[in-house]
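User: Is it possible to get a 3D structure for a protein together with its bound compound? The compound here is 3,4-dihydroxyphenylalanine. I've pasted both below.
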Amino acid sequence: MPYTVRNLTDFSTEALDSAVSELLSGLEQESAAVGSENDWKAFRDRWIARKNGIFTQLNELWLKAAPGPNKRDVGRRVNELKPQIEQAVNATYARLVSGALFKGRSVGRARVPDSAQDSPVPHRDESERLDITLPGIRRPIGAEHPVIKTMNEMIGVFRNLGYSVEEGPEIETDFYNFEALNFPPNHPARDTQDTLFIAGQESRPMRDRLLLRTHTSPVQIRTMQKIKPPVRVVCPGKVHRNDALDATHSPIFHQIEGLAVDTNITFCDLKGTLDHAMKAMFGSSVKTRFYPSFFPFTEPSADVQISCIFCDGKGARDGAPCRNCKASGWIELLGCGMVDPNVYGFVDYDPAKVSGFAFGMGVERIAILKYGVDDIQLFFQGDVRFLEQFL
Ligand code: DAH
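Assistant: Yes, that's possible. Here is the predicted structure of the complex:
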């Protein structure tokens, strides 16, 4: 029989003593019968639920019923019972947990704590039994995405050379993305072919029209407007182009821009810096080659190639032409050059006093080479089987 609170009529010391000990032995028996988490919840609610729990009933059936002279004694006893009941509820839970851990008799799924087995009250439902010996649920914490990892590695190389990091907005104005970088008004790069423009900007002057930046080079301009030379920064970020996607193209990708402006910076500094960076990224045996090129914001401009890391620059591997470098022994990796003096005009630098170099590289392209990935789309599809290879 489960314990029920007795209606008290006799409030003598003996009668109270016996009512209290009856309650405590009921408490003990019911505690011993708890064998699962659900049992325990029922036990807890039965004894300490605010609404109609056994302790609450004590106030009604004992304390309120007590005649004036006995109220004090009854009140003291009820007050003493409160922590005892709470303590029993807590101890039962602790016993349940440690019992399942240490006292279980079998190693299977339905491990039975000793005390629960011996208890006279049957379990309501075996399947409700708490089994904390089951393996826990693994929550993977994730890892750096290979693109971010590559980006951070490259940033680290330049941090070690004393560069700091600057960032700019992904939604840019035509001014920062093109005009201040010396793109003439009718330059094909401004065409909607390559650039994603924000709609409904036609009423604005050309230079204020918003677009998704097509490269990180606008951060060069923002940086030079903000700080005076000497400047040494790298600018990582996301860029957008109106390109159809395939194995080597994605409408969203990442770049790292570099800019160094000071007095007497020469093309030799540019070559030495990038040669060092490529060796740091791909290994000290990698060679670099600077190939004439054109960018509106640098003069002279160059494309940088590294010796092919797949065939060691030989152009052939295992007796067959190397596919990675199209048998040339070289792989094109980034654009660079000496900052065009026209650009200084847009940021209030004196081209007679300062000189500098800039470079820009695609992060996915570097990651593809470094990790031997054959399709740029893999970086954006979020397939865990691909991503977990970079843990
Ligand atoms: N912004 C160029 C692009 O996206 C890359 C580039 C070339 C950046 C030369 C530079 C540079 O800073 O000097 O194609």
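Confidence is low (pLDDT under 50) at residues 103-113. The first helix runs from residue 13 to 33.
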